[in-house]
């Protein structure tokens, strides 16, 4: 089972518009961060895409990804879903819509914002057949579990994917660790975790909270994501424990 990190940055990316690198060294390629999204792939080559980031087209091109077998959404914030139209080309050679999954609230908001994607329009076919994540347990060769995480005043869905005897958890955009999260993520092989910055933030995990979640869940390996311009790659690598990887665009890891 493989993790591919398409994007590792916060909602504005790194650098921010205006060539603002903050504390990140512009000469370190792994500091150039597009908006967050991942792919998990099993031994049979089946792929699940989590979130359709604003930078999705360039991410798929950069990593040679021409098809996925299903799409999951954590929530409807722009950096996590506004690249949805880039899935159109994956519908061209399919006889049916691409399977999509989201929570009730996220699904309703996506349908309102992108009605043509889920209903078809002006003779164009439906691109994605959207289902509630609570209605299924197996998708494209993966079993999965999910949990709603506090994300400031709203929630974000965290996912645990399992295949080939391994598990990968994707927990981005959360501001509090709950007992339900601990139960869902316990003992995962890889935890990809929200880590906006070192200072506390009202809607995101900071470095201490990210490491606390990994420690409490006793995961084998941890990957930091959703990092802003204050999180220099090399400096973080020198600071985090040995079983923690500072994520970057294009990172591949086998569970």
Write the layout of secondary structure elements.
Elements: E1 2-7, E2 37-41, E3 47-50, H1 56-62, E4 70-72, H2 78-81, H3 88-91, E5 98-102, H4 104-113, H5 115-119, E6 128-132, E7 138-139, E8 142-151, E9 154-163, E10 166-171, H6 179-185, E11 190-194, H7 207-217, E12 221-225, H8 233-239, E13 244-246, E14 252-254
Parallel strand pairs: 3-4, 4-5, 5-6, 10-11, 11-12, 12-13
Antiparallel strand pairs: 1-2, 1-14, 2-3, 7-8, 8-9, 9-10
Tell me what the structure shows.
InterPro entries: Metallo-B-lactamas (IPR001279), RibonucZ/Hydroxyglut_hydro (IPR036866). Residues 47-227 form the Metallo-beta-lactamase domain. This is MBL fold metallo-hydrolase. The protein is of the alpha/beta class and 255 residues long. It has eight helices and 14 strands. The protein has a seven-stranded mixed β-sheet with strand order 6-5-4-3-2-1-14. A seven-stranded mixed β-sheet has the order 7-8-9-10-11-12-13. Helix 7 (207-217) links the parallel strand 11 and strand 12. The protein starts with a strand and ends with a strand. 46% of the residues are buried.
Summarize the structure.
The protein is an alpha/beta fold. Helices cover 22% and strands 28% of the residues.
Uncertain stretches of 5 or more adjacent residues: none
What is Rg?
Answer: 17 Å
Termini, distance in Å? 6 Å
The counted number of beta strands is 14
Adjacency order of strands in the biggest sheet: 6-5-4-3-2-1-14
Question: How helix-rich are the residues, as a percent range?
Answer: 10-25%
Pattern of helices and strands:
EEEHEHHEHHEEEEEHEHEHEE
Largest sheet, strands/sense/barrel: 7 strands, mixed
């Amino acid at each position: 089972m493989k993790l591919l990190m398409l994007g590792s940055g916060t909602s504005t990316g790194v650098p921010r518009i205006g060539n603002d690198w903050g504390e990140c060294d512009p000469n370190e390629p792994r500091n150039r961060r597009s908006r967050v999204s991942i792919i998990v792939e099993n031994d049979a080559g089946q792929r699940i895409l989590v979130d359709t980031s604003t930078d999705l087209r360039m991410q798929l091109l950069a990593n040679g990804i021409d098809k996925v077998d299903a799409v999951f959404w954590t929530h409807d914030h722009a950096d996590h879903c506004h690249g949805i139209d880039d899935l159109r080309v994956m519908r061209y050679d399919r006889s049916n819509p691409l399977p999509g999954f989201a929570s009730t609230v996220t699904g309703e908001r996506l349908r309102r914002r992108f009605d043509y994607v889920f209903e078809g329009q002006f003779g164009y076919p439906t691109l994605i057949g959207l289902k509630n994540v609570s209605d299924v347990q197996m998708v494209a060769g993966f079993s999965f579990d999910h949990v709603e995480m506090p994300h400031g005043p709203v929630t974000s869905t965290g996912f645990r994917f399992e295949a080939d005897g391994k598990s990968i958890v994707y927990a981005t955009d959360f501001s509090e660790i709950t007992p339900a999260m601990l139960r869902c993520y316990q003992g995962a092989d890889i935890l990809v975790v929200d880590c906006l910055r070192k200072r506390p933030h009202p809607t995101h995990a900071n470095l201490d909270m990210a490491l606390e979640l990994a420690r409490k869940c006793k995961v084998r390996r941890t990957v930091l994501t959703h990092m802003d311009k204050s999180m220099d790659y090399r400096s973080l690598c020198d600071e985090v424990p040995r079983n923690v990887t500072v994520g970057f665009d294009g990172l591949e890891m086998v569970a």
